[in-house]
Design brief:
It comes from Hephaestia caeni. InterPro entries: Ribosomal_eL30-like_sf (IPR029064), YlxR (IPR037465), YlxR-like_sf (IPR035931), YlxR_dom (IPR007393). Helices cover 41% and strands 13% of the residues. The chain has 235 residues and is of the alpha+beta class. The protein has a 4-stranded mixed sheet with strand order 6-9-7-8, sandwiched between helices. Strands 4-3-5 form a 3-stranded antiparallel sheet. It is elongated. The two termini are 31 Å apart.
């Protein structure tokens, strides 16, 4: 059982585990910035809505009012591109997690290696670049179902909302089109941060959710630099 503290979304009023929400922090200059890793010092405000919901709340002035109450001050500045800043920060957190798991030896790439791991039951999460071919996806999805004793189910890999160029940079390899995780804990950690990112940006007709062969999606991973780092680096 997770011991993640419960926090309240300032927009919806829903109470969720802290890891399921996104933290906003008040920078020293009064700007509201994303703190998706929940590491910035001081008071924070939490949101658990989609990017579209946040944009609507901003346009109607609801976000400013909610933030003023949360920080007990009206002296704050909301960047016009705050929703985009959050989406980019969530993407970076996910790709950083993927890179960490790759350096730990938990990621397998290359269609033949992925298929072998999938058919032998060693694959715990499968993902595809947004620009991967449909036929390539289907072949590996089928191998994963076979190795997971899930033939006839809708188990399939996750089509990420980034192409092979970005995926390759994240993994430090060339032309990464597909990938898989062979460690169950690594698969859980990546799936958690993926879920939060995908929920915020909302459904896309080219992005297909999957379930891991061994578990349900869970809470989201946190930890890392605060909003100053994210803004300076563009994440």
């Amino acid at each position: 059982m997770s011991a993640d503290p419960i926090r309240k979304c300032i927009l919806s009023g829903d109470r969720e585990a802290r890891g399921d929400l996104i933290r906003l922090a008040l920078a020293p200059d009064g700007r509201i910035l994303p703190d998706v890793r929940a590491k910035a010092p001081g008071r924070g405000a939490w949101i658990g809505v989609t990017q579209r919901d946040l944009e609507q709340a901003t346009a109607k002035g609801r976000l400013r009012g909610a933030l003023a109450r949360a920080f007990k001050s009206g002296d704050l500045t909301i960047p016009d591109d705050l929703p985009a800043l959050i989406a980019t920060a969530l993407q970076k957190a996910t790709l950083d997690r993927l890179g960490l798991e790759a350096r730990a030896g938990h990621v397998v790439i290359g269609s033949e290696r992925i298929e072998a791991a999938a058919r032998s039951g060693k694959l715990h999460l499968l993902f595809h670049a947004a620009d991967a071919s449909v036929d390539g996806n289907r072949k590996l999805d089928s191998a994963w179902r076979v190795g997971s004793d899930a033939e006839g189910s809708d188990l399939r890999g996750l089509v990420l909302p980034v192409g092979r160029a970005i995926l390759s940079l994240a993994l430090g390899r060339e032309n990464v089109v597909h990938g898989g995780l062979t460690d169950p804990d690594a698969a859980r950690r990546l799936r958690e941060t993926l879920d939060r990112w995908l929920y915020f940006i909302g459904p896309d007709e080219d992005t297909v959710a999957c379930e891991t062969a061994s578990q349900e999606p869970s809470a989201f991973e946190t930890g890392g630099p605060g909003p100053a780092d994210e803004t300076t680096r563009g994440f």
